[in-house]
Amino acid sequence: MSFWEVKDRAGQTIAIHQRKDRPDGGKDMAWRRPSGELGLNGTRLESLPLYGAHRLAAEWPEPQPLVLTEGEKACDALVAAGVPAVASVTGASSTPSAESLGDLAGRFVILWPDNDEAGRAHMLRIAERLSGSAVVGWLDWSDAPEKGDAADFLAHHEAADVRELLKSATDVPDDISGTTPSAESAVSAVSTLSAHTAHHLSAHTALSAQRQWPEPPGRQAFLGLAGRVVEAVDGYTEADPVAVLATFLAAFGSLVGSGPHALVGADRHGANLFLALVGKSAKARKGASWTPVRELFRQVDLDWTAQRVIGGLGSGEGVVHCVRDRVERLEGKKDGDFEVVVVDPGEDDKRALVLAPELAAVLRVMARQGSTLSAVLRDAWDRGDLRITTRNAPIRATGAHVSVIAHVTEEELRRELTDTETVNGFGNRFLWLAVRRSKELPEPEPFRGAELDRLAAEVLEAALATANLRAELTRTDAARELWRAEYPQLSAERSGLAGALTDRGEPQVLRLSLVYALADRSPAIDVPHLEAALELWRYAERSTTYLFGDSLGDPVADRILGFLRVQGPQAREALRELFGRHVASGRLDHALLALAERGLVEVRREATGGRPRELWRIPEQSAKSALS
After folding, report:
1. Highest mean pLDDT: which of 146-155, 510-519, 588-597, 606-615?
2. From the CB of residue 151, how many other CB atoms can be counted at a distance below 10 Å?
3. Angle between the 450-466 and 224-233 helix axes, to the nearest 10 degrees?
4. Structural domains in the chain plus CATH codes
5. DSSP-derived 3-state class of residue 67
6. What 3-state DSSP class applies to 523?
């Protein structure tokens, strides 16, 4: 028995499709609700999202060609072969609604019908509904068996054969009366569609080039003790050296506590870092970077590792509880006197290194109405004085030293972090680093022995040197000169989501340089410490550009940009139709203005004898540079 989850744009399961194959070769299909109960409780099949539609924005940028199949099995076969695909879930007798197909607006869609009359009729109806909102192609697999689909093709062919077959896609036929078009019409259709194919494949290639993996940080980032740790554990882990480096810095910054600090005016910055490691998938080995670092810090301070490393970011209350203050109250005695009663002993140790292996879930929690998590994280990074005010049991933490190491996949991050409001709320407190598996180690040796002992002794010595330090660390004269030279670039404004995520460059570099100096047992922040911090920060900037490109963090503007890249110049009326006229004119104006101010689109006004006609397009120079 097979099950497929149909999810909405946010990744929430809407329905479950069940298939049971019969011994006679037939199949029994059934629908279930997310709770497991049979039936859809009145929900019409036509209104269900396309299968796989939740992956569109995150995994497959809009210029990328996309295959639409009938049924989930064929879709899964294509995706497994590396071909972007979604599927209708209505069955051949019905058709997805215009709203369900709305996610395909502005895309290049190749329809792959099941090889029977019902399947071709089904796809022809879909083509009619997509007309005017997407570029639509038609795939005719000439050797297909009766009812054959993409899954049948891949059962006997390689992934490369699929990509070759897609190149033969033609224009949508006028009808399905014949199985094979005439030679003349076929040549004409292929010629017409090939121009579309070339355009969209070129656009996709350009977008991929814009999102090449960021250049790794230079040797300056692997300074001193931190660099020696990365070098020592490299043979024991598949983790990215950048992930190991950043994880060590976050752990060391947590271990040393809130005593050592730097000042910017009256603002106090400690050694606590918020770190987000972003990988393409679970195979990026994001979590593997913590394993050797954890073993190292177990040798250094077992109590800290066992008691002050906290799992999960479920709520703001949970974070505050880990570092909460002692609570006492006066209670009357029988003799009329009063005594102090300890209601809650609290936590004497205000350090907390919070591990969040599923940051996407954290982002969803913060989106809920009434969630205190975002506000608590902001306060934890900014000041360390935290408070949850509830009528029954208010909790408070003062002098908290909270650090965070979070993991997330690219797909989840792009799906959940889509607006600058969320980013400005908490995202720019994090260092966002793109990471990937560095090597294959089928049977890695455990990190232990003399090398581990030697490094642990070094870390312990550095930690002890700062254990009772509550002083401000300042820059040396040479470091101050370098800081002044770099400051204009650090404080320069950047637009879009990538700019919002890196909006705190100055304090982030300051904190990193502080941690590097403490690990070096230096009484001041010197040039090498600042250079190391700058090098790692530049990698964070390159990572955010790779992850978000020129996304503005405005869903309306981002969709318009993708639509224009695929469809070419469009009138304002067509842009309104893109959203089914559900976006107000003022909202559309705001999005277009934001795009125009950044040079991403331009408008040409044509005289009509009345109100000028607006034609919006990608600037010619931008289009040329993107495709060169």
Report:
1. 510-519
2. 17
3. 160
4. 44-210 (3.40.1360.10), 226-548 (3.40.50), 555-627 (1.10.10.10)
5. strand
6. coil
